[in-house]
Amino acid sequence: MNIIEIENLSHRFADGTVGIEGVNLKIREGSFVVIAGHNGSGKTTLLRHLNGLLLPTEGMVRLADMPVEENLLKARQFVGMMFQDADSQIVGETVYADVAFGPENLRLERIEIEKRVNRALRAVGLQDLADQRPHLLSGGEKRRLAIAGVLAMEPRVIVFDEPFASLDYPGVKQVLQQILDLHRSGHTIVVTTHDLEKIIAHTDRLIIMQGGKIVRDGSPVEIVSHLEAFGVREPCAYRLGVEVESWLN
Amino acid sequence: MAELTSFGYVSGDSLLHNLDPRFKLLNSIALSLVCLNLNFISLGIITVLLIGFIMYARLPLNSGFKELRYFFVLLLFVFMARVLSTGGGSLIDFKFFSVSRQGLYAGFLVCWHLAFIVLLGFILISTTRPSEIKAAVQWFLKPVPFIPEQKVAIMMGLILRFVPVIFDQAAETVEAQKARCVQNRKNPVYRLIKLGFPLLRRTFERADDLVAAMEARGFTENRTDPELVSHPRDWVALFVVGSLCVLLVIL
What we know:
The complex is a heterodimer of chains A (249) and B (251).
Chain A: E1 2-12, E2 18-28, E3 32-36, H1 43-50, E4 58-63, E5 66-67, H2 72-78, E6 79-82, H3 86-89, H4 95-105, H5 110-123, H6 139-151, E7 157-161, H7 169-184, E8 188-193, E9 205-210, E10 213-218, H8 220-223, H9 236-240
Chain B: H1 2-5, H2 15-18, H3 21-35, H4 40-56, H5 61-67, H6 69-85, E1 90-94, E2 97-100, H7 101-127, H8 130-141, H9 149-178, H10 188-216, H11 232-250
Antiparallel strand pairs in B: 1-2
Helix pairs in contact in B: 3-7, 3-11, 4-7, 6-7, 8-9, 9-10
């Protein structure tokens, strides 16, 4: 079943700049999709249409057959979004308060909120830092907190916008492990990045964007040789012709 | 940022930690108001009691004092202003300055009042989670007409969350400018402008990202209210503090 269906999607910003143009895309439930492209290729603009943060100038986005515009709150619950800068995404004055922010917006009962927050904190291993102030967390912990905030809303799709940006090696490993765990638990994962090295070993579908359009779509093996023509560095293992290894090994 | 980071909630299981935040706020306000009318003896008694509570709750009084070092400088100014501006029989005369016994008395008393209020604030902040203080303020604002208590609570939370982030950003901008020898420019207005504009631009960009992040998590004003439950101990604490206030005012 297709959980996301995008038909002829275009977005033009107020100043006339074209963000994305004529994008058609279908994503199956439970898949792990990576969207690559250089800065300004339209990756983030595309992601922001998935939960209605941006509405299309033309075209349509459907989530499990429901048009996004029909119910924005439901769309935002359905598609959890991880932003590039975790610091701007964290709104709570403590770790607990931040994770509770989403469920409180859904007007859930206090007892249900508590259950969801504790479950989400356990899932990302931050249960012992519930009373901590977020700006004292490390970069990797901040990303995990942002993931917990999204998890507490119980989405079916989770999209990550450049999840490894400005993280050190342990931070990358923590976040990568988290993404893989979420995929294993049945979530559909969409990741955008211009740095494929860290994630290529885990994806079964690679999409390349340029100038707001999808220019390649297929399995990594099929597409990887085209990457550099579109301003994305080919992962090291493919250049050297050796087996692709996970960053977790 | 150390100044802002360690003056905060300290987890614990003392009576002070477990009191309902609404009652703690009420008690703090009552004691703050009453202390302004107290003399040295009553103030001494109540300060000893307060310090006893701080020790009992195992709050880090030493690091609290360390964080408040700039506040003590402010107190020194207040003290000097009071001493020099209060008339009476002079103790010391030096050129234009004259220090009186009444001036010293008034200076000490006003500084003690202010320090006492800060000590109350220290106890409140150290034993209450920010989200509980936010919930208490929201509860008190609920019956006030024309004040959207949900919005106020969200704003309080965002201020607590983002003030340290903005300070960090400012420190980073200052470092970046020092790395390009800004200290060679002696004009403070020039330096302020060069610091202020990038900082403001970054803060507005961050605010933009924040709006998107809040919307992505379904932000609405019609949210689940915080849950606050009072226990008999809260009423007992209110009664004890209330009685103490009355007693101190009468004395």
